[in-house]
Amino acid sequence: QVQLVESGGDSVQAGGSLRLSCVASGLTFSRYLMGWFRQAPGKAREFVAAINWSTVYADIVKGRSAISRDLDKNTVYLQMNSLRPEDAAVYYCAASHRGEAAFMDGSAPLPATYDYWGQGTQVTVSS
User: Fold this and answer.
1) How many CB atoms lie within 10 A of CB 73?
2) DSSP H helical segments within the chain, as ranges?
């Protein structure tokens, strides 16, 4: 079965950096759209970034974050720089069978596009 396992969450000070990782198994990794979402307490889950052969970022992280993937390791990464207290959340990795097609119709940022979700990794940012 499909499994997504996130890691890399930590407690950092504002202005710091983190790299989150998500290892995927049970799917053809290169074909899948991989996304990162986050959810803070009391708030809705929100889109951060997504990748297949294209990439897309939420405005809230654009210029401060970079999504990448390693096809040999079936791993997607989210590098986050210049972290702010408002970046604190549980970060989730997600996978969609729609792959690159989701960029063509603009659905890559939508949670409903994704078929599988990881358990999340906690990011805490102190001011």
Assistant:
1) 12
2) 101-104
Give all strands (DSSP E) within 26-120, no chain letters: 33-39, 46-51, 55-57, 65-70, 75-80, 89-96, 116-117
* 23-72 pLDDT, tens digit each: 999 999 999 999 999 999 999 999 999 999 999 999 999 999 999 999 99
Q: Is residue 54 classed as helix, strand or coil in its secondary structure?
A: coil
97 burial level (CB within 10 Å; 0-12, 13-18, 19+)? middle
Q: Are 6 and 91 in contact (CB under 8 A)?
A: yes
At position 24, the amino acid (one-letter code) is: A
pLDDT at 110: 98
Distance CA 91, CA 36 (A): 7
